[in-house]
Design goal:
Blueprint (H helix, E strand, L loop, with lengths): L1 H11 L4 H14 L7 H18 L3 H5 L1 H19 L5 H12 L7 H6 L8 H9 L8 H16 L7 H12 L2 H5 L1 H7 L2 E7 L6 E10 L5 H4 L14 E5 L5 E9 L3 H13 L3 E8 L2 E7 L3 E2 L3 E2 L4 H12 L13 E3 L15 H10 L3 E2 L19 H12 L3 E7 H7 L3 E7 L3 H8 L4 E6 L3 E7 L2 H11 L2 E9 L9 E2 L4 E2 L10
Antiparallel strand pairs: 1-10, 1-11, 2-4, 2-5, 3-4, 3-15, 6-9, 6-13, 7-8, 12-14, 12-15, 13-14, 16-17
Helix pairs in contact: 1-2, 2-3, 3-5, 5-6, 5-8
């Protein structure tokens, strides 16, 4: 380790000045690698987190595969350190292996020594390697995940109560030992709980867009997603399509009263020659799914077999497929949202919107907001706010999901957007059962799916199902809702700046 770190500066000096800043930031964090004391560990973890936060998902991040690798490498190193014993052998081994590289993949040292550009996709290949931590779950751990997934669909907001989760696992497995090991398991898997609100219930709409920018245009000229004055549009997310310059898929978030204005604006941009609109469609609802059917305890993910695939294809392409003869493996599909409730039916609209904007939409196990917690980062919810969440859940406009993120990316780091003809979800669920994680956006005519696939499985879907399957890279991540986007006097969301000229 020391030898590698001492030789890197001479090679870093050959890079352009802006790249040197990034590489030296990375190198300086690794130079704190000795973790003989708890103070050393705390210092290293703090440095890793500072560096990740500095570059995380800004525009530079999306342009430079080196930063994709660096974030994954440092995050995984930090997680391994938190799980490490006194000697931290696994932590040191992980650090060195990816600096040194493998027979099939060049490591950090070789790539920098060769002057590899920070935008070169060789860094993405190294990211793929470093994300595979080789931590196959035991059958017991796999059943724990299935238990937690079941809680999200059945236990209401108690699914956000870590004490409830621990007691449920302990009672189901009749083991205090398993219950005590939950924090370590969830940390190892980088697991998180997500909150999902039904946008129309809060006077927001989702708009699916597929467009191509003209060569003379930029996305920022159409909509500046970094500008807080564009209010809820900052809550949108946009994907670039790999290998298709200036082609984008996305989900735009817009206040209900400005939906038509946004459609008019996009059509205006097309008339001005700024972009080509391939499709703009209102999303009716959304669903999410998690499946561990392809995961084998003690081994890890397996590929879908040729026999499984040959059985599956006719079941997805036939209008009236035969019913299942055998019980399928568990598929955790979120229930449908209901559209009969709106927040304006409540007596205090501002408190609802305040909670909607205040509460984080993602939680680690130690940050879960309900129940006693010693974690200072845990958001504090009042009794009224907990009651509101219960009301949202009761009215079926609020859901909770669980994602073992590390497990999902070990299946594949490659994200895809799939456009599917409108078929019953019961029929589509036959495919969902083979996919670790899916987001479904349902329109009047199609189902749009965001998911992770192996390249081989993506090709099977293209060839045998003849669906549109496009590899994607996140270009603009959704920003957390901000209370300032809402006008308490008018009791409605403020219009995005980009629409003010046509409203």
């Amino acid at each position: 380790m020391e030898t590698i770190l001492s030789q890197l500066p001479s090679y870093i000096k050959k890079y352009p000045p802006s790249d040197q800043v990034i590489l030296n930031d990375f190198l300086s964090s690794l130079q704190l690698y000795l973790v003989d004391t708890q103070a050393d560990r705390n210092q290293l973890n703090t440095r890793f987190k500072e560096l990740i936060l500095k570059y995380h998902k800004n525009q530079e991040y999306y342009d430079l595969p080196f930063l994709w690798f660096a974030e994954s490498y440092l995050s995984n190193s930090s997680r391994l350190l938190s799980l490490a014993s006194f000697h931290a052998d696994d932590f040191y081994r992980y650090l060195v292996n990816h600096l040194r590289g493998y027979s099939s993949t060049k490591g950090v040292f070789q790539l920098i020594a060769e002057g590899t550009s920070l935008s070169d996709l060789a860094w993405e290949q190294l990211q793929y390697t470093c994300m595979k931590l080789s931590i196959p779950l035991t059958s017991e751990e796999l059943h724990v995940l299935e238990t937690v997934l079941t809680l999200c669909n059945e236990d209401g907001i108690n699914a956000l109560n870590f004490a409830h989760i621990k007691s449920t696992v302990m009672n189901r497995f009749k083991s205090i030992r398993i219950s005590k090991k939950l924090p370590q398991l969830f940390s190892k898997l980088n697991a998180f709980w997500s909150l999902h609100f039904f946008p129309p219930a809060f006077d927001l709409e989702l708009l699916y867009v597929h467009f191509q920018l003209r060569e003379s245009s930029s996305l920022k000229e159409i909509i500046d997603f970094q500008n807080p004055a564009n209010t809820t549009l900052d809550y949108s997310f946009i994907y670039k399509i790999r290998d298709f310059p200036n082609m984008y898929y996305g989900i735009l978030v817009i206040p209900t009263q400005f939906l038509e204005s946004l459609l008019d604006y996009l059509q205006y941009c097309e008339r001005q020659g700024q972009l080509i609109l391939h499709e703009v469609t209102k999303i009716i609802t959304s669903r999410r799914s998690i499946s561990l059917a392809l995961y084998q305890s003690y081994k890890g993910w397996r590929n879908i077999t040729l026999t499984d695939w040959r059985r599956l294809v006719p079941l997805l392409t036939t209008k009236h497929p035969r019913k299942r003869r055998v019980k399928s493996k568990p598929l955790f599909l979120s229930p449908p949202f209901k559209d009969y409730w709106n927040y304006k039916q409540h007596s205090d609209l501002y408190k609802i919107i305040t909670l909607y904007c205040k509460i984080p939409h993602f939680f680690s196990f130690n940050e879960l907001p309900i129940g006693l917690s010693t974690n200072k980062k845990t958001v504090q919810l009042s009794k009224l706010e907990i009651t509101l969440l219960k009301d949202f859940y009761h009215n079926q406009v609020f859901q909770i999901s669980f994602s073992p993120f590390q497990l999902i990316i070990e299946f594949s780091l490659d994200r895809y957007w799939i456009k599917i003809p409108k078929i019953p979800l019961d029929q589509l669920s036959r495919l969902l059962g083979f996919l670790p994680s899916c987001l479904l956006y349902i329109t009047e005519t199609n189902i749009h799916m965001e998911t992770v696939l192996t390249p081989e499985l993506a090709q099977k879907i293209r060839n045998d199902l003849e669906w549109t399957v496009m590899p994607i890279i996140l270009d603009h991540p959704p920003q957390k809702p901000v209370l300032n986007w809402y006008d308490p006097e008018l009791q409605r969301w403020k219009p995005p700046l980009v629409l003010k000229s046509i409203i």
